[in-house]
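Project standup — Tuesday

K.O.: blocked on the structure for the chain from last sprint. Re-posting the sequence here as requested.
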Amino acid sequence: MEILFITLLFLFCAILLAVELFILPGTSIAGIAAGCCLVAANYIVFDQFGIATGLWVMAASLAVCCLLGYWMVRSKTLEKYSLHKSIDSTAATTEQLSVQPGDEGIAITRLALIGNADIQGKVVEVKSADGFLDEGTPIIVTRVEDAQVIVKKR
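H.V.: unblocked you, prediction finished:
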């Protein structure tokens, strides 16, 4: 009866590990439960069959876990389930994208590092390179990176 129970615990460990990897990735609930099943199965083997058998079963279970992990990495099994798309869109407005280094304007709001500015009649979100700038301060665009407009005091 103990052997059946131990076998079921190892089987539940494998099923829960598969659930963690393929059905509920990132939640860790099934992974923790799989680890608990593995520890419980090994504990029962030690308790019921002695140290010698317990060490053999523990060594075998660790070897199986290592071989399974190695096989998954080498066979690229997880590659089928991974995300392959990259985000190439931006939340920048057309006004932000049209601003060029050297353009001048005035801060509409206080630039507590980030705020709004009127640059050549366009209201854009800007980031201050000079620290905090008060409302109404004349500014100049120093650079534009990935739709982020960096300004400094003129």
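K.O.: great, moving the ticket to review. Residues 4 and 40 are 14 Å apart (CA to CA). The chain has two domains: 2-81, 95-153.
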